[in-house]
Amino acid sequence: MDNTVLRRIRGLAVLASAGLILTACSSGSTSTPDANAGASAAPAAAGAAAPSGAISIFVVGGKSDDPFWSKVKRGVDDAAKVVEANGGKVTWLGPQNYDNLGPDAAKLIGTAKSQGATAVIGADWVPDAQDQAFKAVTSSGVPVFLYNAGGTEAAKKIGALTYTGSDELVAGKAGGQFFAQNGAKNVLCVNTLPGAANTEARCKGIAEGAAPGKSTQLPLPSTSFGNPTAVTQAIKAALLKDSSIDGVVTISTTDADSAAAAIEQAGASGKTKLGTFDMDDNQLSRIKDGKQLFCIDQQPYLQGYLAVSQAYAYNAYGLLLPQSGLLTGPAVINSTNVDQALAGAKAGVR
């Protein structure tokens, strides 16, 4: 998309412009600065548009090589094209790992503030560790846009203007209900990021939705996140210890791959149903082949794209959607709609 076209669409409402950018296939470029770099622009006052050419949006997200967060970042990059074409910039900040997620995220929020952000976008994964950092940003007059984790109540608490993402408790309930509808009575919710608000809400929702069946949580050390061997062995051990477990759900697609291996190794392929939060090609292939029950899509591309679009529209024009929250999910992908999801994945937007 060339700069002329981008300038023509800059005044469109966020949702209208989303349809245009969804057709883009290439990613935009967002910079990742040295965390010790000095401030480069004065923050804009809340409720006021930033001066022309001074817009500097910082996005605090997960690891950019994380399969889920790479989709969020692609949405951020695509939305950044509009910002950059009009003289602004979008900067992505992510942790090196998830071992100390809350405190590390708080430091990144502080980095965004110190480097002259005119808007900060972030996920409230661990409120106890992050909320003070968010409040420091909002109290300084810099608008905050919450996305991915936290929800509308968390947004109100920290003074964020809005929330974009999935309601994790609602998503969990949808998954639990789908398990129950398909005969599962004892579901194991594998949490490799225990203590994080969004993952805890997911497992809580699974338990509520699975009633009258039951669901218990298997909390694993955060160091196991992304460690296929550790996660596989932990799930396998749980299945061998309790033969009544007939459903396993994971908080990420990487963990779902490990769960699929664990179910097979435990000899439970015929009776233990697998589900996961989030979506990738492996999940869709297993659903298509009848080896996985479902996955819950929260549309991460839209989370990144819409969050940046809203921040830019507010900084540039003072525009703000009237909704208290903009939900991008959940959508339960199963055998009945997997073909549509596969088409979206092939197009590079799911």
Comma- or semicolon-separated keywords:
six-stranded parallel beta sheet; 350 residues; Rossmann fold; disordered N terminus; alpha/beta; six-stranded mixed beta sheet
| Terminal CA distance | 20 Å
Helix content: 40-55%
Strand order of the largest sheet: 2-1-3-4-5-11
CATH architecture of the largest domain: 3-Layer(aba) Sandwich
Helix/strand order: HHEHEHEHEHEHEHEHEHEHEHEEH
What is the radius of gyration? 20 Å
Shape: elongated
CATH domain class of the largest domain: Alpha Beta
Kindly state the number of beta strands. Answer: 12
The overall average pLDDT, rounded, is 85
Helical segment count: 13
Report on the biggest sheet.
6 strands, parallel
Q: Give the amount of beta strand, in percent.
A: 5-15%
CATH superfamily of the largest domain: Response regulator
CATH fold topology of the largest domain: Rossmann fold
Q: Poorly predicted ranges (pLDDT <50, ≥5 residues)?
A: 1-29, 32-48
Supply the helix-strand structural class: alpha/beta
The domain count comes to 2
